[in-house]
Amino acid sequence: MIAHVTAVKMPTLHRHEEEKFFINAEGLKEAVPSIHDPPTKELSVVVPSYNEEDRLPLMMDEALDYLEKRQKRDPSFTYEVIVVDDGSKDQTTQVAMKYCKKFGSDKVRVLSLVKNRGKGGAVRMGVFISRGKKILMADADGATKFADIEKVEEGLENLQPWPNQMAISCGSRAHLEKDSIAKRSYFRTLLMYGFHFLVWFLCVKEIRDTQCGFKLLTREAALRTFSTLHIERWAFDVELLYIAQCFRIPIAEVAVNWTEIEGSKLVPFWSWLQMGRDLLFIRLRYMTGAWQLETRKCN
Question: Where is the Glycosyltransferase 2-like domain (predicted)?
Answer without folding.
Answer: 44-221
